[in-house]
């Protein structure tokens, strides 16, 4: 049976297993059933982008069911097949293959790719090659230049799906029963959840180390998850290889020319010159379109930001998907209410910024008991004021009357008691945990809380001896070993005595076929 994992990416950049399907075949109707079942599980929420291998039946099913998704073929698979089928053809034409790969990777626009493709084929007399003609006809389904404005974070292949297939091969055998498959599936999911929990715990407890003294880096460390922050630091390092020149400083849009001064390792593109523009509403755009593709600005934009003296991250720099706050508001982002996604995205960005500001204030300002008490007292007053303002706006909408002033301290105290929660009392002891509702959001009926104060210490990895235990002698160890050897043999499949694996009643002749079918990125 074909095995189809449906995977995506979380805010740590790690692979998430949304689900899996065992299909009867790989026909278009079967894939339509699969994608409809997936949409039912998401409450009708379509994935933003989809990557699959070059399968016509799957492509037609996606076009029929996933009407609001952008679908593309795996770039890596197409180029591998091209090399395998035309190995003799390329060997007779020198650098044609290397030049085609460079063109595919470094083209920023469809026009640039198409003109370069025709020029290369004419240069090497390859216009009549059948496979290259076929690839050019479907160029808008796999060439990266046609997807520069689409969100395919840090990938253009089905590598995550292939790694998931490889993971399951270590847990499920081809002749295993359906019941065994479901049990092993639960184990795989639990393993992924535990890996994510360990990653979160590690990121919370580790001491942050900075690469530079740039304030933008320190702000990014508080907003982004550690793996995404590491990518941000790599982009900052690359800024040292570029020179920035002002092209147009007057008018509504400012334009800069970013030129690479020397080569460096792991360069995403081989081009030397890039164009960065800044719109009146403080939105930065680069000719490489990295923010649209990966949700993170490139080194070219960061070089311009450093050139103009930017000391903090603008709101337009932050993609909520990669923030620590995204894990807190995950339930709100997936509750099925599609109409409010834009508003939620905006509020998630503001939530990340406020969390960063509060963290800075606690670290830099609250250095003694008096400062701490004043800070907590201010939090309580701010919460009361926000609650009162919300209630007054609701009353105004119902009655059409005039809004009352919310700056009266007596009115604040009276109305705060009328909110239903009584007086807002926050303990001010320094060593007591404080739960602040700063940045709390009630979207989707979910409140987000940020806890300040002391955390539980990390658990020791060594178990040690239990109370009353003692190290065993060599005689006791040998005796225990003999007891284990005398134990009755058990079936290696069901772990029950009395039979072996070939005679196990759980055996089922169902065959599982592993094939990477789809990568869905929500």
Automatic annotation (TrEMBL):
One of its GO terms (cellular component) is nucleus. SMART domains: ZnF_PMZ. It comes from Aegilops tauschii subsp. strangulata (Goatgrass). The keyword Nucleus applies. GO terms for molecular function: zinc ion binding. InterPro entries: FHY3/FAR1, MULE_transposase_dom, Znf_PMZ, Znf_SWIM. It is found in: Nucleus. Keywords: Metal-binding, Nucleus, Zinc, Zinc-finger. Residues 274-309 form the SWIM-type domain. This is Protein FAR1-RELATED SEQUENCE. Belongs to the FHY3/FAR1 family. Putative transcription activator involved in regulating light control of development. GO terms for biological process: regulation of DNA-templated transcription.
